[in-house]
Amino acid sequence: MGDGLAARPLGRAGLPVTPIGIGLAALGRPAYITLGRAEDLGEDRSVATMRARTWAVLDAALAAGVRYFDVARSYGRAEEFLGGWLRARDIEPGAVTVGSKWGYAYVGDWRMDADRHEVKELSAGRLRDQLAQTRALLGQHLSLYQIHSATVESGVLDDQDVLAELRELRAAGVAVGLSTTGPRQADTIDRAVEASLFDTVQATWNLLARSAGPALSRAHRAGLGVIVKEGVANGRLTSHAAPPVLASAARERGVAPDALALAAVLAQPWAGVVLSGAASVDQLRSNLSAVHAGWDAELDERLSGLDEEPEAYWAARSSLRWQ
């Protein structure tokens, strides 16, 4: 990938990252809300097969120069898979940047047909319990710990017990951040900036969901590192379901729709890391080609009509089934 994946510091914490990182939401558990998983993964989603698939993607990412890896307690066995890979490859703490999240618990029991796959609780007790679990799996590799899907409505940003725990963690040398969700992402981001505690914010931004952009720009100016998730909208901006205007523009550029969608994110001046949620080495390579896909004002204008109202976008996301 050449200079397109050169390392750079993320926000005021100065975490060394690359413009594209790897998120393991789609690899750490058998079911997820990504379109096309039957085609991408096939029928064998045993723990051993998913571990091997994860390690293959991680090996390819490391070889390509990727240096940021993102997991969460709720991503099934993602922390276990990542931690095992780090040890097997003799990767020293600090050689790559590892971020994880707390707040959701995985309850799917490795079943495709589980009634519920994850349960959310943003309490100080869960933070303490899940931090201990994360440290047991990732050890000294943990560089960043994030609230998972914080919202203003949840009250977590006003929970003094949670904030005290995060301050203690930060004082111990682990950067702290949050991820956001829902149509009011901007409000959550602005509230996090006001807290003067967080080193990073992870938010959804893509060609279908641009509303958080101004708030992310404000967070960036305030010194927070910005991590962008769902850059291909859970598969809606890939070859599985790309809108015709995106598919046409991608063909003209000689790349796949996912690469062009991620190029749009990379073009945002506030974007520190854009996560690839690749479930295979081929998908990863397509995602990584975004660094050379190019983006310009004409293309931005041409695809601006894809942007949806926040309520409509998040309603569509909520309707995606675990598959």
TrEMBL record:
Residues 51-293 form the NADP-dependent oxidoreductase domain. Coiled coil: none annotated. Pfam families: Aldo_ket_red. This is Predicted oxidoreductase. It comes from Nonomuraea jiangxiensis. The lineage of its organism: Bacteria, Bacillati, Actinomycetota, Actinomycetes, Streptosporangiales.
